[in-house]
Amino acid sequence: MPLLAVRDLAVSISRLRPLDGISFDLDKGEILGVVGESGSGKSLTAMAIMGLLPLIGGRVTGGTLHFDGIDLAGLGENEYRRLRGRRIALITQNPMTSLDPILRVGEQIDQVSRMHLGFSDSQAKKHSIELMQQLRVPEAATVHGQYPHQLSGGMKQRIVIAMALAADPELIIADEPTTALDVTIQAQIIQIMVDLVRDRGLALILITHDMSVVAQACDRVVVLYAGRVAESNRVGPIFASPRHPYTRDLIGCISRPGQVRGSLKGIRGNVPGVLDYPPGCRFNPRCDLAQMVCAEKPPEMEVDGASMVACHFSEGAR
Amino acid sequence: MTDSTPAPLVSIRGLSREFGSRSGLFSSPRVLRAVSDVSLDIPRGKVTGVVGESGCGKSTLARLALCLIDASEGSVRFEGVDLASLNGGQLRKLRRRMQMVFQDPYSAIDPRYTIREALLEPFRIQGVGLSAAEAGTKVEHLLDIVGLSVTIADNYPHQLSGGQKQRVGIARALALDPSFLVLDEPTASLDVSIQAQIIALLERLRRDLGLTYLFISHDLGLVRYFCDSIVVMYLGRIVEILPSAESRPRHPYTRALVESTFEPDPTLRRVVTKLSGEIPSAFNLPAGCAFAARCEHASDLCRTERPELSKDRHDHAIACHHPID
After folding, report:
1. Please, which residues 216-235 of chain A have a Cβ atom closer than 8 Å to chain B?
2. Where in the sequence is the domain holding B137, given as residue range(s)?
3. Which of A47, A224, B47, B253 is the most exposed place for a label (fewest CB within 10 A)?
4. Helix B252-260 to helix A183-200 angle, to the nearest 10 degrees?
């Protein structure tokens, strides 16, 4: 049984349905990349798993979410509180919004293990400093007593990761965790997260718009487009032979060393907003393989082992 | 430089810029050197890339190159004319020829202007009188060359997508027929799909209009793809100049940037070496090489004596005591 099983998830916000038919599995020790442009539904998927949809007036209106056999959609807020932060943790893009500016960073990590694991003050502090050392925070004991504004962006993001790890969760959802960081720091944070998954048998959902981060870190990928799954597969085949034109185009947006100038293609147009989802395949107005049928009929999801694709011409994208 | 080399469009010599800062109400002011002793030639019709991380001085360099802020030391010559020697009126006149495209298309356009008004603003500032018919033709032409439909002319910026706004930012920079554009992270706030569109547009414009670019970015992958030569900066100084995108980096910092730049191919996963330490504060620069504290090749020499930037015979410049072969 997978640790997390999402089946046909649909999310509604008032009368709109921004997310529809989302399915994927995640095992322990595995990194799942959730990719797509802004507005494709990546963060909504994360909020649905975390039970945070009520914050934005949304709710799950279809499908199921099972975490370690627990039906997440059926949980009340009190039960969710025992999971959130304890067994499922979230790391957000901007560490500044996750940290309280007037509390010492060490105290913020300590709180997590005191609350969820019942640690004493001294146990919690020892635990936090060990975590910070594992995350390669230099002079961890000193940094433990500092305030967020005294730390660099990369160091703050390590503190946020330490907070996420403090209650020893099984699943971590990282929503664009390195987008705001410098490239050398991004590379180190990604490496730290990969090592954590391998060493501790964690499961990680890495939400990103960057296919090169997926290629570097992930085992499997779900490509979202306009609130639906376009394609999902193991990372090897999805890069070697993408079956959905959107996947192929997303990969084609990143330059490779030695690539001839002028050969980098973007994707024309923009992701439609939820009010403007076109009929048929939602990608059809931007797709260079689109035919009449694509604008008329939504493609069925073809499932073949680990590979899932929703495209009328899934062979043509190769 | 041999006689056959054409004169560069822009020539930067010994450029430095300091900023003063007070760390507290009663403490003495501290000085931050954002750019230190930068010399650089920007050849006509080429794309010169400047790459580095936050605090490396690349955006300050961009502003210095257009004389948007004053240099503490050094000079910028545009077609041989020293910008510091010009008075306000002369500088404004020269500004028609050199323009900037900013990172954030959201703040670069006044939200109260329609796109038409935003595109005509440069003419007003420069005192170029346009008849209504001329203005209409200009707006139509500018939107057309950046791939926008004329139907958006009467929209307001908030009605456009990020990519469309950045196209307007480029159109506005092109309004007065400049020959030199400074592009300061023009795609950093955009989705990768839109980023690739904007880069393709910039490439077409450079070819069609014979433009010269100074392209500032934190993204080495993008710089390698788009630029003819690459200037790598670290804490205010040039540490390496790669004469072509294919040149093999020799400075340990450039190597670290390469290692940190992932490729869209899972068979080419990077081994991320642990760069020890953080980028030092620009207020408190170490005595020797600024990268020494993070460099695995650093020796005692590196910690005491700053390496000078020196060129080899292939025009490849490196500031390192122990360059990698």
Report:
1. 216, 235
2. 10-318
3. A47
4. 50
How many angstroms separate the CA atoms of B285 and B36, rounded? Answer: 12
Parallel/antiparallel/unpaired status of strands A70-71 and A58-67: antiparallel
Residue B1 placed within a domain: no
User: What's the per-residue H, E or C state across A92-153?
Assistant: CCCHHHHCCCCCCHHHHHHHHHHHHHCCCHHHHHHHHHHHHHHCCCCCHHHHHCCCHHHCCH
Q: What is the CATH number of the domain that holds B118?
A: 3.40.50.300
> Which chain A residue lies closest to B195 (C-alpha atoms)?
A266
Spatial separation of the C-alpha atoms in residues B165 and B191, rounded to whole Å: 13
Give chain A positions within 8 Å (CB) of B263: 212, 215-216, 254, 256-257
Short-list B192, B243, B180, B239, CA closest to B219: B192
| Cross-chain residue pair B265–A256, CB shorter than 8 Å | yes
Structure tokens at A87: 């067994």
Is-contact B206 B213, C-beta < 8 A? yes
Q: Which of B217, B236, B290 is nearest to B74 (CA)?
A: B236
Look at residue B325 and tell me if it is in a domain. Answer: no
Total count of domains within chain B: 1
The answer to whether residue B34 is domain-embedded is: yes
Average pLDDT over residues B96-108: 86
| Mean pLDDT, rounded, for B204-215 | 96
Q: Is A208 on the interface with B (CB under 8 A)?
A: no
Q: Is residue B4 one of the residues assigned to a domain?
A: no
Closest CA relative to residue B227, chosen from B237, B242, B239, B208: B242
Task: State the virtual CA torsion across B232, B233, B237, B240 in degrees, nearest 10.
Answer: -20
pLDDT in tens, A252-300: 999 998 898 888 888 988 899 999 999 999 999 999 999 999 999 999 9
Whole-angstrom distance, CA of residue A135 vs CA of residue A161: 8
Alpha-carbon gap, residue B215 to B205, rounded angstroms: 14
Is there a contact between B239 and B251 (Cβ–Cβ < 8 Å)?
A: yes
